[in-house]
# Entry
Amino acid sequence: MRKNIIIIDDSKEQSEGLAKGLSRIMPDFSFESYHTESEIQNAIENRFFSLAILDIRMDGFSTDGIGLAEKIFEVNPFANVIIVSAFKDEYFMRLKDLFLTGKVIDIQDKEDFDIWLPKLKKSIDGYYDKLEKDPSEINNALLQFYSEAKNETDTYRKGERFEHFMSLMFQSIGFNQVLKRVKDQSLNEVDLIIRNDIEDNFIGKFGKYILVECKNKPEDKVNKNDFIVFQNKLKNTNGLSELGILATTGHITKNTYVEAVRESSESRKILFLSNPEIEKLIKAENKLSAFKSLIDDQVKDN
# Structure
């Protein structure tokens, strides 16, 4: 897993200074700082991070750090938090409830950076050491989200849950930013657009973006027409995306695979992810390698 950490504080000086200081003593980690409410909400929804360092008191915001932590736990099963504040006593009862989630790895007072940074480093290192020794927490979270997506009965919520699961899946592979429900310049709506920011020569060949179409209808099958419509969306990116992914909780018809072979001379490729492929990705310890293996098997040499 990429060691991406976001820092949330209502003070620009505090958030940026903390990010710079930690980057200096922890160069193998990625730190991103956010200080406005709109930036913070967007980061929580669309950025990949496995740890958040956040202040409790957020002056002028519609919520506080505890509310933001609750939102993080709702949308990102991979993320834990470190709480920092000079006002812990004011929030004691709500902090107690937050600790019961098991996702608060530390709570620290704000101090001078030369004293505080080593303490933060110790907590961060301890969290990632534990995560690397036992990656099952991530896989179990993905499996739970996938099950919930498949079992949802409300049609709208069903689609929304599957898109969210797929977003989490690709973040766990290592992609840093996944946007949901995006309209491109030709006004084609795409369920997910993944910024292809992984430093990997093989994955890098497929353009700046990867498009994902999500079909959460276990009783239906993805057919030839679904493939053709999605392929046209890829064509309309003008070369920005050379890889598309059709993901389904159901099945893919034989004539869809036949159509894919017939169109295999195109530079653009489409990867099919149905239950067997999704299960393989969920269970894989190295999800990037598993993803590349699926591309090899289906589209690389077509």
Remarks:
- The mean pLDDT is 87.
- The two ends are 30 Å apart (CA to CA).
